[in-house]
Design brief:
Strand content: 25-35%
Structural class: alpha+beta
Low-confidence stretches: none
Largest sheet: 5 strands, antiparallel
Helix content: 25-40%
Number of strands: 5
Radius of gyration: 18 Å
Distance between the termini: 24 Å
């Protein structure tokens, strides 16, 4: 997968997120045992926990919980998109949608579109980054989407305070 970021997550700041940019990251697999374990622990519904009953469901087989899919998305999002040095957290997400089921054996990736960036007026050492995240299966079908909001530290202020500079 490709990304047009000028820097790696280990050296990424607010200024590196450009509105309109699209980044692709992945992949992460969906093992059957993980689907069963997550389902049994967090969403104990038969189509997440019992392969025999799941075959009789409207899905025709075992599927990952939507929350499991969201957790897999967050792993890719955290590993590849968020800054490792200037991420300041998130006030939340909007418009979470599960578009199609995720099955054991699927391979997921994410496509992240930077919707908007805005430097904070009250705290100029940081900015707000709004992103649209699409989770894709191996057939490039969207299985989930969500609009994320993150706070990112600005490079000049972060470098000045930490003494670090880009290499």
């Amino acid at each position: 997968m490709s990304s047009s970021f000028p820097s790696s997550p280990e050296n990424r700041y607010f200024e590196d997120y450009v509105a309109g940019a699209v980044h692709d990251f992945g992949t992460i697999g969906v093992p059957e045992q993980e689907v069963l374990d997550f389902g049994k622990r967090f969403v104990p519904l038969s189509y997440h926990t019992d392969p025999d009953l799941a075959r009789k469901s409207i899905y025709g087989g075992l599927i990952a919980s939507g929350w499991h899919t969201a957790a897999l998305m967050m792993r890719l999002y955290t590993d590849h998109y968020l800054s490792k040095i200037a991420n300041l957290g998130s006030p939340g997400a909007d418009e979470l949608k599960w578009d199609r089921p995720v099955f054991p054996g699927d391979d997921l990736s994410i496509r992240v579109t930077v919707l908007e960036t805005r430097r904070s007026e009250s705290k100029p050492d940081r900015g707000i980054i709004r992103s649209f995240v699409e989770v894709l299966n191996q057939n490039r079908q969207v299985v989930m989407s969500v609009k994320m909001v993150n706070f990112g530290g600005a490079e000049k202020v972060s470098r000045r305070n930490s003494g670090n500079s880009r290499n």
